[in-house]
Request: fold
Amino acid sequence: MIDESQALPAPVAAGVYNLYTGVELGDEAAAAVPTAAALGLEPPRFCAACGRRMIVQVRPTGWWAKCSRHGAVDSIDLDARR
Reply:
C-alpha cells in the first residue's frame, strides 16, 4: 500500500508527459532530455500529468513550479521526502 503522505505531487509525479520537454512519454522525442536536466541542474518546466507549461521560479535555495490545473510543488518539499 502506498503511503499518500509520501506520494509525489501530480506536477512532478510519474505521468504521461516529460517534465523537461512536455512531449508524451510514448514518443521517441521524449527520450531526449536536456543535459542540464539530466545532471539535476534544471527544474521541471512542464507538468507530468497534463503537459502544460508550468510557472517556474528559481531561487538560490531551490525552485518552485506551479501547474494551473494540478497545483504547486517546491523543491524543498521534495528534498524532505528523500
Summary: The first helix runs from residue 35 to 38. Residues 10 and 49 are 6 Å apart (CA to CA). The beta strands are 55-59, 62-67, 71-74. The two ends are 19 Å apart (CA to CA).
